[in-house]
Amino acid sequence: EEPGSWEETFKTHTDTKPNGPTSVGLDFSLPGFEHVYGIPEHADSLRLRTTEGGDPYRLYNLDVFQYELYNPMALYGSVPLLLAHSARRTLGIFWLNAAETWVDISSNTAGKTLFGKLLDYMQGGGETPQTDVRWMSESGIVDVFLLLGPTPAAVAGQYAALTGTQALPPLFALGYHQSRWNYNDEEDVVAVERGFEEHAVPCDVLWLDIEHADGKRYFTWDPSKFPRPRDMLERLAAKKRKMVSIVDPHIKVDSGYRVHNELRSRGFYVKTKDGSDYEGWCWPGEWGCAVGGVLEGAPGGSMLTPALLPGSAAYPDFTNPEMRAWWASMFAYDQYEGQIQRSGGQHRPFVLSRAFFAGSQRYGEGGGPPWGPPSVCVCSPHSSSPPLCPAGAVWTGDNAAEWEHLKISIPMCLSFGLAGLSFCGSDVGGFFKNPEAELLVRWYQAGAFQPFFRAHAHLDTARREPWLFGEENVALIRAAIRQRYALLPFWYTAFYRSHRHGLPVMRPLWMEYPEDTTTFAIDDQYMIDRALLVHPVTEQGARGVQVYLPGKGEVWYDVTSHQKHHAPQTLYVPVTMSSV
């Protein structure tokens, strides 16, 4: 072969393949199935669409700026688990490959395999639906698990046996979180905390984004903005509130910065091909790649957020065993079990992740799946690249203050749950842009019935604390948040069941009613655990919603009016601004 025959050039980057092509793939035919789900993360409907004539679903962890909806593009995390469901059985395909992967889905009846045609004949003639799934990975090996069910609960249990169950979060993490990029200084934090007190709005956690650090030197405080951080944290702790500080793992190249000096002296930065430290660009300016440490004195911990921007490629060298050990010691992976034992299971750190892989649900308190790098304890990754640090909670990333983004949060979180990641939510109000009052209220009402409940906003958006939208709207938001707190025992029990048995906390209707074909394509309503059916209002100006009540012979009760309804039926429910 000619030298360089397998090279690919993208703008200024050349991808060399000295060993030639390394991709692997496998095709699956699923006779009897026309509904498939899973393979998060994509901003798409719950039921996966056929990709014939278009791009396949891509699995590749990326920090996507203002992602597109109803698109198979890759987003922040990836779990290569696909579920197929029919009224007769459920099965799963777990493609254990962390390389960049594409999944092509096609519907096949006329061109079915011999086995599919034989199935048609055995079932008495007629066409049996069939879905064909093609997995293609950039590199690695074919390592695939077939989860044979036959029920949705059985598939969930089989997947959990391989990758672990959802970590049981601390109770405070199930409350309401208030976040913004960024609260400006200590006085701003005090004012926001006082606002919750004065307006009687419950809140358990306040978040500080990356501007709290001294010149983006993470694990430090800006001395002009936060001169007395310990006093600030102690004031919050006295009110039984927590604080999460967001930390990006881009280490500023600065000879006066302890973290940088340690990583460079120990050779822990990713190297260029000539052996020098790779240096890219991100928030801090010039930066290297690696990070560690837990912020001292922070009752809530820190959230770790890697965001590899275009033109940068810095990353901890996890091929180095010493680097892995250093990472583990900095983030208490090896201290997790002792912490749990010493506290009798009462002290469980909170972890939020935007990057994830199969098994990330297992360690909301540190650790990781056996094929991933040693991971983080108190908090977690925010974006891209192969699984940096598995975590218990995830969210849908940098969404926008638009009705369609509110609507898409439901199927996105349902897909997360099918892949074992039960602790999911979206940025209430949308990260980008400014929501009008109706959208913000509806988002709070929807967010109160999603597992992870946090408001968050971009640096350039207008302030949107709940009391800034008038007394009528703050009353509606207060009611939604209080409803969340009233149900905390129910939420905690649901997470306990998920932790024990592997079933998602927020689940599609068909998981509870697997023979009810009407439920197979529904993704605007869902079950919380096995008892509460939720249909958020996601249309502007809505005066009513169509709610499907599943289960032949079941009896459902309206939580508000206590009115009894017999299933199965589709019920028109009038709504006001106080309705969920």
TrEMBL record:
CDD domains: GH31_GANC_GANAB_alpha, GH31_N. GO terms for molecular function: carbohydrate binding; glucan 1,3-alpha-glucosidase activity. Keywords: Glycosidase, Hydrolase. One of its GO terms (biological process) is carbohydrate metabolic process. Residues 1-23 are annotated as: Disordered. One of its GO terms (cellular component) is glucosidase II complex. This is GANAB glucosidase. It comes from Circaetus pectoralis (black-chested snake-eagle). The lineage of its organism: Eukaryota, Metazoa, Chordata, Craniata, Vertebrata.
